[in-house]
Amino acid sequence: MKISCIFLLNQVQQEIMTTIKFIFCLEAVSDVETNTTTEAVKNLEELAINKGIASIYKTCDTIEGLEDSLNALLYDDHNFKDYEIIYLVMTGEGNNICLNNYYYSFEELAEIFEGKMKGKIVHFSNTKILDLNEEEAQYFLDVTGALAVSGYGERSKNLSSILVDKEFFKICQEKDDVIEIVEELHQKNYALCKLLDFRLYY
Q1: Looking at residues 169-192, what average pLDDT do you find?
Q2: How far is CA 11 from the centre of its chain?
Q3: All domains of the chain in start order, with CATH
Q4: What is the pTM assigned to this prediction?
């Protein structure tokens, strides 16, 4: 299992240390033993430099690896309560995720995250489509305890959502009300939000 260090860069270290909320990014890769700097890593580094938002980044190539990473964060990282955003970079269709050509439903994902996401926003990059019906969304929120689950209705092979993601993460540092977060995000990035079909279930 590959683990990247917390992004505490010198020029923003003081600002980051005073940050209340953090991001935990989990990216699906074909092989965790392959050491490559992905687009997600570069974007998180930019987020630390430009926005002063710290992150922990891990990769997974199996559903067990995803669960192990989450458990390690939950039980070993004493700052877990400060991680408001669980940022998942992986592929999949509307109500599932894909890990190494295996598909897992949101119901299965909810059971893995059961009771572990209290107060968290689970956010998917637009490398997957997020399209849940009311029952699926409510089940995920009820089982995981998540504050909200968000993502995009339009998929891209690349992280074309990153401009929106960065603004979304920044607003989440400043506001607690998900309705206010979505409203401000659309005010600042209306065209991109519409183009990528940003959506949030709460």
Answers
A1: 92
A2: 25
A3: 3-201 (3.40.50)
A4: 0.85
